[in-house]
């Protein structure tokens, strides 16, 4: 099982994501970002977080430690927002905590000098995302953090937010038909680093064995797998994940991403999109300045 901790203090909700995670302190003296079972995304988002995050860790990628976080809504009695209180009251029991990386900053795809990423490392990240159908790591939504790794001050990439991956588990009845499905990764956050997905595939595909997958899915709490239609219980659901991901790893030639636009091509495409949006605006809106401050490509 995942290491367990118990929330002792609810600090603040994070409204940047639709799931409204929160920062908490725990009885192990650690500080965590917690994703709650009562969020609109539900338990399957937490299942995806565990499976993809822990698989990535075992394949050598950097993922903040994940823990099973026991949460009593009473520790957040002072939270003033009613919608957040509703979320927390619906999340009593086990939730998912992710170690808070102090001082970490969001990775921005346009700044290729922020962190050193080799083509092989970029390829490994893209390969994991392609294996697990994680389409939520784009230039507009990187879901990557920059933080020094253990034992060095040099900034490194850390992978976060995998709740949107494993899209097949939302439709188990059609999952088998998607084992070889290719996804569009042309706007992947690391496309500008020339991902060497062929080398990554040669390295990682043989390592995604049924034994490794059973180790990973065994970390998912039974409560998050119970009641899945078409399965006799949590262990049967786990075998469903094992069978699907093992088959997809064996069939990597069918879905392996190979072609990525250069950074200037992505910028040009973004500029074309902005121009088309501007052209479609009514005349009176064309004179309203853009005050968002957002760069053309993120």
From TrEMBL:
Residues 15-232 form the HipA-like kinase domain. It holds the Pfam family HipA_2. This is HipA-like kinase domain-containing protein. It comes from Streptomyces sulfonofaciens.
